[in-house]
């Protein structure tokens, strides 16, 4: 029995957390990359020590934790610093994600949903996903929601949205789209439909195994991780 991976992503204020809440309610295994990204840089972690070496103590808060805003400002304006930070944190994030995937595998889950905000930007991980799900909403709705949620003016909100790959662009890469432009009920119905399809694809797993095109998502992820650790 092969396990498969489902990548989930969205855009700022497109409503991904609403979708994740419904999936969790349905009993799906969801791994949140953002939560892991915060965990791996906690004080006394390997990544925390490396970040300090390269970025200095001025990026620390009084309690010893990393000031994400200060670090964000540095890497926003300096691409080479962003690459450096990624090279420190990404292997640690992958390692932790893989640990959680294996935990769910042992618990008997047949698929795991990986909630990765920059899934379509990084593109490297999409090849390990059997399906990729985009939580979409139309641009005017996205802008209105972001302004309301973050109390931002139009210019600021537009700047935040335009710093990301446009949702229209991401639509091309996703195998499934949840359109969250309408009300919660409509979104919920779409998530229930997606869940049914994911559960259903398990029933056809034996047929795919017979054809020999079963997903080696897990093996691929392990390989990627090993390559990261060795390099």
TrEMBL record:
Residue ranges crossing the lipid bilayer per the database entry: 205-226
SUPFAM superfamilies: P-loop containing nucleoside triphosphate hydrolases
Keyword Transport: no
One example of a Gene Ontology biological process annotation: coenzyme A biosynthetic process
Keyword terms, alphabetized: ATP-binding, Membrane, Nucleotide-binding, Transmembrane, Transmembrane helix
InterPro entries: Depp_CoAkinase (IPR001977), P-loop_NTPase (IPR027417)
Keyword Disulfide bond listed: no
MF-aspect GO terms: ATP binding; dephospho-CoA kinase activity
Gene Ontology cellular component terms for the protein in this record: cytoplasm
Family that this chain belongs to: Belongs to the CoaE family.
PANTHER family, sorted: BIFUNCTIONAL COENZYME A SYNTHASE-RELATED, DEPHOSPHO-COA KINASE-RELATED
Cross-referenced NCBIfam families: dephospho-CoA kinase (TIGR00152)
Protein name per Swiss-Prot or TrEMBL: Dephospho-CoA kinase domain-containing protein
Source organism: Chaetops frenatus (Rufous rock-jumper)
Gene: Dcakd
